[in-house]
Structures are given as structure tokens and as C-alpha cells.
Design a protein that fits this description.
Shape: flat
Strand content: under 5%
Order of helices and strands: HHHHHHEEHEEEEHHH
Largest sheet: 2 strands, parallel
Helix content: 55-70%
Structural class: mainly alpha
Distance between the termini: 33 Å
Number of strands: 6
Strand order of the largest sheet: 1-4
């Protein structure tokens, strides 16, 4: 078996493994008491990660350059990055819900690269002159890893919004910046009971009060409390303690994964500017790819600033991170589909 046949085998195997892994994670989320499903899901992601890494290694040996020169190679590198970030996040959080959102995205990426791209785009070709540089590995690999981390963090933020039904809840987790100090104090009240809340507690909790019911295992949704409103009625559909715990876990993982992806994005942009100066004589030319990279950087910089210094938590930063998921895809793929600018070589047009 030569390297080309090995690559063809591995890309199909990666898709098949990720498809089965996606089903395992979804089945495990629906039926949490089924044994061995968490282990099977993690094993599936690890096998897919190994298959993609082997594919990229074979591609490197065959072509003689780092496999990040066209759409086929970059899609598989992105899928490898997503599975890697998934394994790190899942291992640190011990939450199997991570795979519910990451497995289908990784599977969709490999399916697009394997089944949709024309055969001529899957074949390794000689590098264009602009890519014959050591900066190819430094700049493009770091950017792709940052995309993978930011996508995973954004997906977890979307999962947070789904779990909390888009409600504004007061989190008591550890992912709180200096501007987000909150008191953990709360009183037990029955759902729907008329209660009073002092302005001091409201200030300590960023204008939100946390209430829990001691009946039927339900937890009341957090309502806005202000000093001018001495009495507030708890409204909305209650969230169970399990949902609140899961929401805090998702919020914490999302924050930490985005915190990993943002410095990688910063390093990648700086490396790209240095490479652009060597190749084109200018550090920044407002190429569409460069512009959208800057927009992506600003979106996630705003997310981290809001969490670290402004104390945002819960729904608002999750919405910002969810919008970042779209921005990352536009930066990575949307700009290149237009065939405009200096970064359009090796793609569709």
C-alpha cells in the first residue's frame, strides 16, 4: 500500500469513526445510565484523532511539505485540532456533553473534505511560490489550532444557551474575572413565593439573586433584583439543580477553551504579519482574510474583556461567543470561497 492509498483509507476511516462516535455521544446524552458509552465516545474521538494525524503525516511524507497548502489539507488539520481540543476539554472537565457538540462538527468537516471536494482538490500539488517558506508551518498551523479552540469554545457556549433555555442565571463557578466577584449567599424560597431581597445582596450578585426551592427538586430561575424593587416574584420555568450544575460546567469549559484559543490567534496574526512583510513587503494590507482575522480577534477580545474586567457571566458572554462561531467560519472559509485577495489560492475559485 502506497501513501496515496493510505490517505484515501484514513480519510474514509476518520469519517466513519467520527460518525459512529457522534451517535455514541448523542445516545449517551439521551440515555445517561447506559454503561460504557462515555468510554466508547472518548475512545472514538481518540481513534479519529490518531487516524487524522496519520493521514497528515503520510501527506507530509508524500508531498515533502507541511500539509496545510489547500482546502483538503486544512480541513483535516482543523478536524484534528477540534478532536485534540475536545480530548483536552473532556479530560479536564469530566463532562461527556463536550462530545455532543464537537463530534458532529468534526464529522461534518471530514465528510465535506472526503465526500464533497472534487478529486483534483484532494491531490497534493507543488506549492505556489508564496507558500515556499518556513512561515507556512508557523503561521498557518497556529491559526488553524486557534480556529479549532475558538470553535469548540463557541460550541460549548451554544450548548450553555440550550441547557439554560436562554435564561439569565447567576453562576457560582470558578470562571469569574476580577470584575465578576459575586457572593455565593442565597436563601431558600418556594417557587412563586413573594420574597424580599436587600440591595446589598443584589449589588454583590451583579443585580441577580439566586433562589432555590426545597420541593420537587426544582431550582427557581434567577430574576433581576434592584435596590428600587424591594420585592420580587420569582418567575419563569424552574431549572433543575442538574441543569444548573451542567450550565456552570459548560460555561467554565467554554471560557477556558476560548482563553486558550485567543492567544493562539494573536500569535498567528503576528506571525502572518511578519510573513506578509517578507512575501509582499507590507505587514498589513487590509486583505479580506486579514480584515476578518482582525474582526475575529476583536470579537473574542471583547468576550474575554467582558468576563475578566466587566464581570459578565451567563447568557450575555455566551451570546457573544456564539456569534464568534459564525465569525470564525467566515474568516476561515467564507473569505476564501469568494476567491478575493491574497489568500485565495488553492481553494474553490
Amino acid at each position: 500500500m502506497n501513501l496515496v492509498e493510505l490517505q484515501s483509507l484514513l480519510d474514509n476511516a476518520s469519517f466513519a469513526v467520527l460518525f459512529i462516535t457522534m451517535l455514541v455521544y448523542w445516545f449517551g446524552a439521551a440515555f445517561g445510565n447506559v454503561p460504557y458509552l462515555p468510554i466508547l465516545g472518548t475512545a472514538g474521538m481518540a481513534i479519529a484523532n490518531l487516524c487524522i494525524a496519520t493521514l497528515l503525516g503520510a501527506r507530509w511524507l508524500e508531498a515533502g511539505y507541511f500539509p496545510l497548502s489547500n482546502l483538503y489539507e486544512s480541513l483535516f488539520f482543523l478536524a484534528w485540532g477540534i478532536t485534540t481540543i475536545h480530548l483536552i476539554a473532556e479530560n479536564n472537565s469530566r463532562s461527556r456533553l463536550v462530545g455532543v457538540v464537537t463530534a458532529p462538527v468534526a464529522m461534518g468537516i471530514t465528510a465535506f473534505a472526503t465526500l464533497t471536494l472534487p478529486v483534483e482538490m484532494q491531490v497534493a500539488e507543488p506549492l505556489v511560490p508564496a507558500l515556499k517558506s518556513n512561515w507556512l508551518m508557523m503561521h498557518v498551523s497556529v491559526m488553524m489550532l486557534s480556529y479549532a479552540a475558538l470553535m469548540v469554545g463557541s460550541l460549548l457556549a451554544i450548548a450553555f444557551l440550550v441547557v439554560t433555555r436562554g435564561q439569565d442565571i447567576q453562576l457560582q463557578g470558578s470562571s469569574v474575572g476580577t470584575g465578576g466577584y459575586r457572593s455565593n449567599g442565597f436563601r431558600l424560597q418556594k417557587a412563586g413565593e413573594l420574597v424580599s431581597q436587600s440591595s446589598t445582596v443584589a449589588v454583590e450578585n451583579n443585580g441577580l439573586a439566586r433562589y432555590e426551592t426545597n420541593t420537587n427538586g426544582k431550582t427557581a430561575v434567577l430574576d433581576l433584583v434592584t435596590a428600587s424593587e424591594p420585592q420580587t416574584v420569582i418567575s419563569g420555568e424552574p431549572l433543575s439543580p442538574q441543569r444548573l450544575s451542567l450550565a456552570e460546567t459548560l460555561d467554565n469549559i467554554s471560557y477556558r477553551v476560548i482563553g486558550l484559543g485567543f492567544p493562539l490567534l494573536t500569535i498567528g496574526i503576528i506571525a502572518g504579519a511578519v510573513w506578509a512583510n517578507e512575501a509582499w513587503g507590507s505587514y498589513w494590507s487590509w486583505d479580506p482574510k486579514e480584515t476578518w482575522a482582525l474582526i475575529t480577534w476583536l470579537v473574542f477580545a471583547a468576550y474575554l474583556h467582558a468576563r475578566i474586567t466587566r464581570g459578565w457571566q451567563g447568557r450575555r458572554p455566551a451570546i457573544l461567543a456564539a456569534s464568534g462561531f459564525v465569525v470564525v467560519w467566515v474568516c476561515y472559509l467564507g473569505v476564501n470561497l469568494l476567491g478575493k485577495g491574497l489568500h485565495s489560492y488553492g481553494w474553490f475559485f
